[in-house]
Design a protein that fits this description.
Order of helices and strands: HEEHEEHEEEEEHEHEEEE
Structural class: alpha+beta
Oligomer: single chain
Strand order of the largest sheet: 5-6-3-1-14-13
């Protein structure tokens, strides 16, 4: 086969996959009393770079579109991944994305966040303060020492972790827990061990009769073993249609790796939505937000 034919074949495969995993579903207004849950990987910012991908200059381009996306999602609870501003010597004290969204959305507060000396702030869970009361929050790292902050993963790679927060819904009186997961994208063994740890931490909450939402970037699709591990402890994963990661180019090559799962009293309403669109002509990040509505 000539090089030209190989290139054409690759282009055809990519085109077919993109079509297969694309598509737009309108985001409906939530039903009265419904609880809107969302997850969104927003990519880290490199503070020491003025220009280029994921630099401070790039953040200046992305920040208004990201705020627009946040407002369109309109979640009661939204868990973020990679909400971090990397910079030598700042000790994690700078978080441009978190500060920006809170400044421009005064009806929200951040759970699963705090002083980075004692609470990792890169996976906050934002919530509507006029509806929800924060009851508790915590974290554990995907590590042999999960309760040691910033512990490296099982194979010694960069730290990865789960944050969580427990809320009371003033509308219904229901108490529920949101578990916000982000796994290592590069190592399958890390993902498997991470999900075993997450399942071990989540199972007692489910067995106690709690309502639990598990959300986040699992770097795994439904049908993959890491997802199955969480299903085995009683979590039901919503059938997310198409791609949730798009290479920061709107290229949708494979199925969802960002997920929303549930257990307990909450029941999904309608179809989950992946918001595949630019805002103000820009991609806010390299993932799409994933949204689902629930009632108790």
């Amino acid at each position: 086969m000539t090089l030209a034919l190989i290139v054409l074949a690759l282009v055809a495969v990519v085109g077919c996959q993109t079509i297969r995993h694309s598509g737009k579903i309108a985001l409906p207004d939530p039903d009265a009393g419904a609880l809107r849950i969302a997850t969104y990987n927003v990519h880290y910012i490199i503070l020491g770079q003025a220009t280029g991908p994921w630099s401070v200059g790039d953040w200046d381009r992305r920040k208004d579109p990201l705020d627009q996306a946040f407002k369109v999602v309109g979640a009661d609870v939204i868990g973020f991944q990679e909400m971090e501003s990397f910079g030598r010597g700042n000790g994690g004290q700078v978080n441009l994305t978190l500060d920006w969204l809170l400044e421009n959305n005064p009806g929200y507060a951040a759970a699963a966040a705090g002083d980075p000396q004692v609470f990792p702030s890169t996976q906050p869970i934002l919530y509507r303060t006029d509806r929800l009361d924060l009851l508790d929050q915590g974290w554990f790292f995907f590590s042999d020492t999960p309760d040691v902050i910033y512990a490296r993963t099982f194979n010694g790679s960069y730290p990865a972790f789960t944050s969580w927060a427990q809320f009371r819904d003033r509308d219904s009186g229901q108490v529920f827990r949101v578990v916000n997961i982000h796994t290592d994208y590069a190592s399958r063994s890390n993902r498997l061990q991470s999900m075993e740890l997450a399942a071990a931490r989540i199972a007692p909450w489910i067995n106690a009769g709690e309502t639990v939402f598990a959300i986040g970037d699992l770097n795994a699709r439904i049908g993959d073993r890491p997802v199955a591990i969480l299903q085995e402890v009683g979590l039901t994963f919503l059938p997310i249609p198409g791609a949730t990661y798009h290479f920061n180019r709107g290229i949708n090559l494979f199925g969802a790796i960002d997920h929303i799962a549930h257990a307990g009293a909450a029941q999904p309403q309608g179809t989950p939505v992946v918001l595949r669109q630019k805002f103000d002509g820009e991609w806010p990040t390299d993932h799409y937000p994933v949204i689902a509505d629930f009632t108790f």
